[in-house]
Amino acid sequence: MIELSGVSKTFTLHNQAGAVIEVLSDVSLSVRPGECVALTGPSGAGKSTLMRMIYGNYLARSGEIRIGGTELRGAEPRKIIALRRETLGYVSQFLRVVPRVPTVEVVAEPLRALGVSAEEATARAEALLTRLNIPQGLWPLSPTTFSGGEQQRVNIARGFAHAYPALLLDEPTASLDPANREVVLTLVEEAKARGAAIVGIFHDAAARARLCDREIDMGRFAPARAA
Amino acid sequence: MSDAPLLSVRGVAKRYGLHMGCEDVSFDLHPGEVLGVVGESGSGKSTLLNCLAGHLPPDAGQVIFDTRADGPRDTVKMSEPERRMLGRTDWAFVHQHARDGLRMGVSAGGNVGERLMAVGARHYGDIRGQAVDWLERVEIDAGRVDDRPTAFSGGMQQRLQIARNLVTGPRLAFMDEPTGGLDVSVQARLLDLLRGLVRDMGLAAIIVTHDLAVVRLLADRLMVMKDGRVVEAGLTDQVLDDPQHAYSQLLVSSVLQV
Predict the structure, then answer these.
(1) CB contact under 8 A, A11 and B242
(2) Contact B235 A12 (CB under 8 A)
(3) What ipTM does this complex have?
(4) CA B72 and chain centroid, separation
């Protein structure tokens, strides 16, 4: 479902003397439906960079990134948008929303974009918010003023609203209490069971052990540093 | 997803004497797509928008619009009445200053109804009914339908301008700094409104702005302009998070963090 071959990434900082930072080289990775793969390595190893490249948020310098048969590199923006709408979900660490939009609409939005009716999308959003223990009194409010943990759970609810065949999870359990952590782990297990291909970053070793079929040490993709 | 572009822009250029307004701009816009055009003042983004919308004659290039009646037509070569008709029906233009896009001496309902009458609506009750419906969609109290826009706040005037433009169900909207000059809280409300309208009406839009936060929330795609040329184009979040061109990097890194 998620196929990477020979992917590399460099950042060229034109306004800082044209400094070129090599982050990853020759990444190859294949994730099958129903499989969960963890990216591991210390901060700065390029875990998030790789996730962002798979999402089309960062441009790869070379190589191929295919999601469900669609090549990302060189794809028209609208192809990537369609892929994100239908196939590829991403739970980032940060919630980014239009201010003033109620939480329940933020969560329902991915379904509305797929043409699901307002009633059905709202019902699904409410069910997820309930599972993730977001108090009903908060649903009509914008999540911009919520606590970090609440925002993270809203973000997770949004990411799981549609049954994406491919999912990227960036530390989905990072700032959650044990009860909510358990809910999120169960959601991920359910996604695996329905056949989603998942790539995740989990600093939580127990979560990793429970969810992931394989671990990929990002250290092996570190570019050779010129001395 | 339709594969035929709604708008095909090819090699559009506009010069002011020796000074370049915009040069060699080409892109396709598909139904329902929102394109953001960013760049600093003088980068040519407003000139480009005015050339595309038929407000300025470009010196070179084609602006091909997929018309309902006759399919793709180069609007640059259309007769003035034909282009005006497009401007009243399938195209919308939202000015930065609402008073440039409104008739200030006419009531709010009249402002919305006028555009309907321009496309042949004659039944007073229907026109008024639609005007009231649109005022409510842009969150203006129906009780204000007979008030003139001079009695409205800046944010309300901007919403009225949007209602006036969208009442005829256009397929393409040109927007020049639609949230410029408004309070931040009013901006947020307008962004929310625009996003809903774009989604529900399947509207394609070209939004010119210098506000990167606005395009991040509204635009699917981005073009970065400098000195009249497009220096970078791509998916909005990719251009903002991983800009490739030196100027885009400078633009993105110059935004103050709140």
Answers:
(1) yes
(2) no
(3) 0.89
(4) 20
